[in-house]
Design goal:
mainly beta, 2 helices, 13 strands, elongated, 201 residues, seven-stranded antiparallel beta sheet
Length: 201
């Protein structure tokens, strides 16, 4: 049941980013109406993207895609492909899980690639996020994809790293990711810690 919930939650929270430029894989059965729609006003102007499921209503507030922002730590290349901030109005059944009626979800789509034949340890999926609103949170490992760990030679991992915040999604204009440096098999740091500054503007 926990595995099903994890898959379901990841699909809901990251669908907006994946649909806009990332590769996606369908995992498991979905027993929810995970439909996305672009709401429009009377003049046909595009408004916010809304996704409804048994978890509640996810409203995408801001999104930037095709960023292709690359930083390096030793032989590791980290590419930030897209960022998104959204508001999740939590359904009654999941308020205990989130601890409140509404949360802000920041999703960072990334790819980590080892360009060497060496074994390198690197954990961008355990990043710390700070915002222009003064909030600092660690990534939610339970909700995020596995984008870190040991990289055995020239391999890569990609997916969405998810942060749950209290600041209103509308107020978040700038974010910074703080990521520990990659380390080699002798536990030597291969660079300084990374600080990636990104803006929704």
């Amino acid at each position: 049941m926990k595995k099903f919930f994890t898959v379901l939650l990841l699909v809901i929270l990251s669908a907006g980013l994946v649909a806009c430029g990332g590769d996606s894989e369908s995992t498991g059965e979905q027993k929810t109406d995970n439909t996305a729609q672009e709401q429009k006003d009377d003049k046909g102007k595009e408004e916010k993207e809304v996704r409804k499921s048994e978890l509640g209503t996810l409203t995408v507030i801001k999104k930037k895609k095709d960023l292709n922002y690359v930083v390096q730590s030793g032989p590791m290349n980290l590419t930030i492909n897209a960022i998104q901030t959204a508001t999740l109005d939590v359904s009654q059944n999941y308020k205990e899980f989130f601890g409140k009626d509404q949360v802000t979800i920041v999703t960072v789509e990334m790819k980590a690639e080892n360009t060497s034949e060496d074994t390198i340890s690197f954990y961008p999926d355990q990043a710390v996020l700070t915002t222009n609103t003064g909030e600092q949170v660690e990534s939610d490992i339970f909700l995020s994809d596995d984008v870190g760990g040991d990289f055995y030679g020239k391999v890569n991992k990609k997916g969405n790293v998810i942060f749950v915040l209290e600041s209103p999604a509308e107020d978040i204009t700038d974010i910074k990711l703080i990521i520990d440096a990659a380390i080699d098999e002798d536990w030597n740091a291969l660079s300084n810690n990374l600080q990636v500054e990104l803006s929704f503007n």
